[in-house]
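Researcher: Next entry in the queue.
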Amino acid sequence: MELQLEGLSKTYGTVQALRKVTYTFKPGIYGILGANGAGKSTLLKTIVGVYKPTSGTVETKGVLAPLLELGAGFDPNYSGKENIFLYGAIMGYSREYLESKYDEIVEFSELGNFIDVPLKNYSSGMKARLGFSIATAVEPDVLILDEVLSVGDARFRKKSLAKVQSMFEKGVTVLFVSHSIEQVRDICDTAILLEKGKIIASGDVESVISVYEEKTGK
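Model: Structure for this entry, 218 residues:
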């Protein structure tokens, strides 16, 4: 599954958050790097349609599963179980399909009996586990992860990273934003570096990380 960006720009008042971003994401796992304010989250939110671009286009086909922030797409008053069907419906899946995936989602999330508890009583880690479990179980064509693997316990993060890596074999395109260079090294095969809304480096992970570390003085 390819994701094509052509001249993508996004302006807030006088601030240009994205500046004519053009890039083709082919199947693979991409690390999206950049300092705070570089445009990473704006780029992802524009791709998934949360923001309308000021100019340019986004072209994608198939199912896109975004995990942009904890609890996005969930209703805090619904139980974990009810939110599985709510979030899945937002992604375009039928109830029958979600029922076929339900046990897999609950098992991966490790929520146990908490699956029947209202989401407002969940910790941030529990919300992340539920969201990640839904998004990866339904086998999307494009998976977008914005810092969602930075919460929760280390064991579940490791398990989740392994899940993302396994999706590469199925031809899924994964866009992964993280401030953890080690996470990007562990799972990504390609990276792009944003600065002031522009792509200033792209290619293999190590070469892009080198530029990033030089820019940030790390």
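Model: The first helix runs from residue 40 to 48.
Researcher: Noted, moving on.
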